[in-house]
Amino acid sequence: MKLQPDRIETQSVTAYGPGWVAIQGEKITHSVLITSEGVRLDWHCQNFEDLGPQHFAQLAELDVELVIFGSGERLRFPRPEWQVGLMQRRVGLETMDTQAACRTYNILAGEGRKVAAALLIESVTSND
After folding, report:
1. pLDDT tens digits for the chain (128 residues)?
2. What is the rounded CA–CA span in Å between residue 79 and residue 86?
3. CB-side neighbour CA atoms (13 Å) of 39
4. Residue ranges of domains in the chain, CATH in brackets
5. HSE-up of 19 (CA within 13 Å, CB side)?
6. What whole-number distance in Å separates Cα of residue 63 and Cα of residue 77?
7. DSSP sequence for 16-52
8. Selection from 7, 34, 28 nearest residue 122 by Cα
9. Among 46, 55, 80, 106, which residue has the fewest nearby CB atoms (within 10 Å)?
10. Residue 51: burial class (beta carbons within 10 Å; 0-12, 13-18, 19+)
């Protein structure tokens, strides 16, 4: 039985790979914020170590009920003190690796939820 529609009517992640995601078919190679309401913003951080309270304060300003934080190629959690603004606004934050965050965002956005994805896209280094 098919439970998901063929096409969701909101901004979605259409593909991903090491060092990139595609949003509505456009390949993005830097960290990005997207919402199910159609907002798309650059998220100015190149790796997990660049993150700070200002990045999560930006998330608190979004008009959403839940933020899915994609922490890069592996699961890493933001500091609790960075999440104060989100907690004050009663915005949930779920952390997972970026690929899982893409999938979860698509499901929730497809269900009509007011959700955002904060996707950390780390540059891929070559060992050539």
Report:
1. 333 455 567 899 999 999 999 999 999 999 999 999 999 999 999 999 999 999 999 999 999 999 999 999 999 999 999 999 999 999 999 999 999 999 999 999 999 999 999 999 998 764 54
2. 12
3. 17
4. 29-119 (3.40.1230.10)
5. 4
6. 22
7. EETTEEEETTEEE-S-EEEETTS-EEE---SSGGG--
8. 28
9. 80
10. buried
